[in-house]
Amino acid sequence: METKWLEWARTLQAIAQNGLTYTKDPFDIERYESVRQIAAEIIASHSDSDLGYIRDLLKGEAGHTTPKVDVRGAVFRDGAILLVRERHDGLWTLPGGWADVNESPSEAVVREVYEESGYRTRAVKLLALYDRRKHAHTPHQYHIYKIFFQCEVTGGSPSESAETDGVAFFRQDEIPELSISRVTPAQIGRLFEHYRHPDWPTDFD
Fold this sequence. Notes:
Layout: H1 4-22, H2 26-45, H3 51-59, E1 68-77, E2 80-86, E3 92-93, E4 96-98, H4 105-117, E5 119-131, E6 144-156, E7 164-170, H5 185-196, E8 203-204
Parallel strand pairs: 1-6, 5-8
Antiparallel strand pairs: 1-2, 1-4, 2-3, 2-7, 5-6
């Protein structure tokens, strides 16, 4: 679960971004830019990130603020789940990432699974739609919805990518150390339960 400072900073950023999207008044523009600066200072003061980097990151956001969408593929084979190892931190996760514009969520997850693992798949069921804030992930400056699809292998073979340097299937009692910013042990456990109970409805929140 998140700390309050991150929730406050994200709220201030949303107020500033939405205000800058709609206002034409030069004085309001100045006020909203000041609010965004405060949000950047809160994040920088509670993290290892440089203030200039955070400020530029927030300034790069435009339009009405909405949550970002992260898609993840739960690919099972013979009772084991597909994981990939992230080059960034050397830890394991479900293949996935940001959905792109002009993609449906299922198209995005099929693309991400292929890019990160080398396996061709098709999405067969929406297992869960989670608000990242309500799960035990590491803090993130964005508000994110995480969408988990069950996918079936249709072809391909394991291969590394620019983002991943390991691809393997793991049984539930063999799960390696996970990249908690991307997926949690509780989520992996829940996906195995869905695999064992295919009649279960989709989880949410």
